[in-house]
Design brief:
Radius of gyration of chain C: 16 Å
Largest sheet of chain C: 6 strands, mixed
Helix content of chain B: 25-40%
Mean pLDDT of chain B: 94
Distance between the termini of chain B: 26 Å
Strand content of chain C: 15-25%
Mean pLDDT of chain C: 96
Oligomer: heterotrimer
Helix content of chain C: 25-40%
Radius of gyration of chain B: 20 Å
Largest interface: A-B, 52 and 66 residues
Structural class of chain B: alpha/beta
Shape of chain C: globular
Number of helices of chain B: 7
Strand order of the largest sheet of chain C: 1-10-9-6-3-2
Order of helices and strands of chain C: HEHEHEHEEEEEHEEE
Shape of chain B: globular
Chains: A alpha+beta (360), B alpha/beta (291), C alpha/beta (189)
Number of helices of chain C: 5
């Protein structure tokens, strides 16, 4: 006698209960609060906001807690929530030149208006495990100085003044919204930048790194990397003017790249651009390299077959929620497909054996 | 009872309008993959997000929904999707194919002949039949435009040269109304004949790949083949050990580690219905004892 | 805007649009079958069925063309309020509404692109009456053949020669709707 396996629903409920217990962990250890995650794991929160395409540190922190620290799972939770929200309108382009910067470095000029501001960076920390942190010690307050009110203009604007760098076209055209329209290839730059800024940090990092190693050369200088807060403004038709609806923290990276030109066209540097939610400088730098790499056609460069030059390859594989879903789905039942192949291979083998026997 | 925190059938009305427009264009051009702005659903890509969005766009409160995975109503993902729609749309659910007005499926077409008024919604992982021959969407789109399907025939012919037969056992490509080559989703080729001339509407949803396509009722669907190597739907050469059916697609179940195995209908409703009608295979038992 | 424009939409959009879409889907999937759809009370001259189609399919992302007598203030206001759809010239419209004469010449509507045949217009043809008698229909969705009272034959035959391009049509009268996708072969009976 054979009784088919039943009880899928109970199995699912029990699995979820077990998961919740594991999430909480040892109950003699105090529970992590969402505020603790938001404040003390801020870079994880930033990544979840950037790749979740939703600027909300509290929800991102909640998602990290719910996902047991699995950031791709947290990004997925944020995306699934985000998609239920109505799209009320579009903000005006943020003015990053008016950013209240906490960090601003240029690799192309030793000093410049607005200055070099190191800010809260790991750059020069010695990567020695700090066992004092294990003792949960409080840290002394960092030294402060009065905030500068001087403007911090973009480095690329200095270059632009001399005509040394390509001028970005401006326009009022509404860019397509990747989250509301199907991806259409070839994509324009606005769509590519949307896909990269929410793309998987690891994937974008590797693509950028590959261009540095010669798979599609980007030859990038970091003209400027800036992190800080900007105002978000929205036109309110009923009022007839724009109002500030909030502030967000952004990381912006502008790279200055190899020049082009000819005997008749004066050479100019070219640009790569990265803009990401939160303090996310690895991602922003990587984004600007990948952006530049994907611009080979418009800048009249050769296609060398490098992965980072291949728009379709990059855009179709950058999204970690898509990638992880499709990758992991192969653990779902495939009895039927497998059975059809099993039957086919058995039949093909039987035919081979029959032919061999007939020959002998 | 529906979950009041979400709209009927989860999706907001604007999203449903967008999906509904895509479904209608799919119906108008059978077998053509219509791009749609697939939304992130509360289950992962690969778990049937395309099918779920299509079902959500078609569902009415009066519907009776059946969800199967691998032909079975009790596989975990089928249970999970069924529960999702019970929660968000409050619809009646059933395991009986004949009682369902919408059937969402992964990898099978039910054995029972579908009827007018029914909709079969397929979950599709890779909607592009040419994808494994040409990975670029920009290229395959051109191939569909120009009806350049030679590459597919070359692939099938290479199978014949190597194995003496076409070595595609599932997701076997079809041609719709003599125009578009279409991926029927990873159903076993045993199911392919049921695609053609069905009385039901067949809708295909690929969430991650952002495509919807459709077969209206009574649409002519042909599995690709050659005159000297005609298409043969195939299954394991056994009868169901529970209900003795000789004409249903079978799952193989390993029963011990001594090479013991049995074959049972993959369509659990079909098998149960037969056993209820008194058909018994060598390992079957009358229904009331197993329920 | 006329205050009447605020009236006549769905009272319970999620459920009413779900039911109406199912009827619409069945109508397009089974050319020749006439279905009933209800729930909209649009201003004249728009029929209930055409109003329902606009409510369930059109929004701020879809352009709509109003042909002939349908291009009136009452309808423009109603569509703007209930759908938010931009009103456009025939050549740029994803949806077009009017009686058959006003929609002429139908060759001006989008038929899609060879690589994107879905980017084609859908015509909502308002009919004085609608019955399962008239032109003979065959093709996908039809078991053997069907009949439908179409306003003419030649335009639909010409549209069919463009397949997989072509416009798609709904025929509406009162609360009745019938579908005529581009795939249907139309003949004089």
């Amino acid at each position: 006698m054979y009784v088919a396996v039943k009880g899928g629903e109970r199995a699912i409920d029990n699995a979820h209960a077990w998961l919740a217990e594991e999430r909480r962990g040892d109950t003699t250890v105090s529970e992590l609060s969402v505020a603790q995650i938001r404040e003390q794991l801020a870079l994880a929160v930033n990544r979840v906001m950037a790749e979740g395409s939703l600027y909300d540190p509290d929800l991102a922190a909640l998602a990290i807690k719910q996902a047991r620290g699995d950031l791709i799972e947290a990004i997925f939770l944020i995306r699934a929530y985000r998609t239920t929200l109505p799209r009320l309108g579009a903000s005006l382009p943020v003015k990053t030149e008016e950013m209240a910067v906490i960090r601003r470095v240029s690799a192309t000029f030793k000093d410049l208006p607005g200055g070099q501001i190191l800010g809260p960076t790991f750059d020069y920390t010695h990567r020695l495990l700090d066992f004092k942190l294990a003792a949960e010690g409080e840290v002394p307050a960092a030294p402060t100085a009065p905030a500068s009110t001087a403007p911090v203009p973009h480095v690329t604007e200095f270059l632009n003044r001399e005509g040394m760098i390509e001028t970005e076209p401006t326009g009022d055209a509404q860019p397509a919204d990747l989250t509301r329209e199907p991806m259409e290839l070839p994509a324009n730059r606005a769509l590519r930048l949307q896909a990269i800024t929410r793309g998987d940090e690891g994937f974008i990092l590797s693509m950028a790194y590959s261009t540095q190693r010669g798979y599609g050369r980007t030859h990038a200088f970091v003209g400027e990397l800036r992190i800080g807060t900007v105002a978000v403004e929205m036109d309110i038709p009923e009022l007839g003017f724009a109002v500030e609806i909030g502030e967000i923290e952004l990381t912006e990276c502008e790279t200055v790249n190899q020049f082009k030109g000819s005997k008749t066209v004066a050479p100019q540097f070219t640009r790569g651009y990265g803009l990401v939610f939160g303090q996310t400088e690895r991602k922003a730098i990587a984004m600007s390299l990948v952006d530049r790499s994907l611009r080979w056609a418009e800048l009249g460069e050769d296609y060398t077959g490098a992965p980072a030059q291949d728009e379709e390859f990059v855009l179709m594989h950058a999204d970690n929620v898509q990638a992880t879903g499709f990758l992991e789905h192969i653990k779902l039942p495939h009895y039927v497909d497998f059975q059809s192949e099993l039957e086919l291979v058995r039949r093909l083998r039987a035919e081979v054996f029959a032919t061999q026997e007939a020959a002998e | 009872m529906t979950d009041q925190a979400y709209n009927f059938a989860y999706l907001d009305e604007q999203t449903k309008r967008m999906i509904r427009r895509a479904i209608l264009k799919g119906i108008a051009v059978p077998g053509y993959q219509v791009p749609f702005a697939s939304r992130e659903m509360p289950m992962p890509y690969g778990w049937g997000t395309g099918g779920v969005q299509v079902t959500a766009a078609c569902l009415t409160p009066e519907d009776t929904l059946k969800v199967i995975d691998q032909g079975a109503d009790d596989t975990t993902n089928a249970v999970s999707i069924r529960k999702f729609f019970q929660r968000t749309a409050g619809v009646a659910v059933t395991e009986a194919t004949a009682e369902a007005s919408i059937i969402q499926t992964r990898h099978r077409i039910p054995e029972a002949t579908l009827t007018e008024g029914q909709i079969l919604v397929y979950q599709v992982p890779i909607p592009e039949p040419l994808r494994f021959l040409e990975p670029r969407e920009t290229e395959t789109r051109k191939m569909h435009e120009l009806e350049e399907y030679g590459l597919m025939h070359v692939k099938l012919y290479e199978d014949i040269a190597r194995h003496g037969t076409i070595a595609t056992a599932y997701a076997y490509p079809v041609k719709v109304e003599g125009r578009y080559v279409m991926d029927p989703s990873p159903i076993p080729k045993f199911d392919n004949p049921k695609l053609s001339n069905s009385a039901a509407i067949q809708l295909f949803g690929a969430g991650r790949e952002q495509r919807i396509y459709a077969l209206p009722p009574y649409t002519h669907v042909v599995s690709l083949d050659f005159d000297d190597h005609p298409f043969v739907p195939s299954k394991a050469p056994h009868d169901c050990d529970l209900c003795a059916a000789s004409d249903s697609y079978l799952d193989e179940v390993i029963t011990d580690d001594q090479g013991g195995r049995m074959f049972v209908c993959s369509d659990t409703d079909f098998c149960r219905t037969r056993r209820e009608a008194g058909h018994l295979g060598p390992l079957g038992v009358p229904m009331q004892e197993t329920v | 805007m006329n205050p009447d424009a605020l009236l006549g939409g769905f009272a319970d959009a999620p459920l009413q649009s779900a039911r109406a879409f199912r009827g619409t889907l069945e109508a397009l999937a089974r050319p020749g079958e006439i279905r009933e759809v209800t729930g909209a009370m649009p201003p004249a001259p728009l029929s209930v069925a055409a109003g329902v189609l606009l409510l369930i399919l059109c929004d701020g992302t879809t352009s709509v063309h109003l042909a002939g007598a349908y291009d009136c203030a009452a309808l423009r206001d109603w569509i703007t309020f209930h759908c938010g759809a931009p009103l456009m010239a025939a050549e740029d419209a994803m949806f077009a509404v009017g009686d058959w004469d006003a929609l002429q010449p139908v060759t001006r509507f989008a038929v899609g692109q060879p690589d994107y045949p879905d980017r084609s217009a859908t015509l909502i043809i308002e009919m004085p009456d609608l019955s399962p008698q008239g032109q003979r229909l065959t093709g996908p969705g039809i078991a053997t053949s069907a009949q439908l009272s179409l306003p003419e034959t030649a335009a639909f035959r010409a549209n069919r020669t463009l397949f997989p391009l072509g416009f798609d049509a709904f025929l509406t009268c009162g609360t009745q709707v019938a579908g005529l996708p581009r795939s249907t072969i139309v003949e004089e009976s």
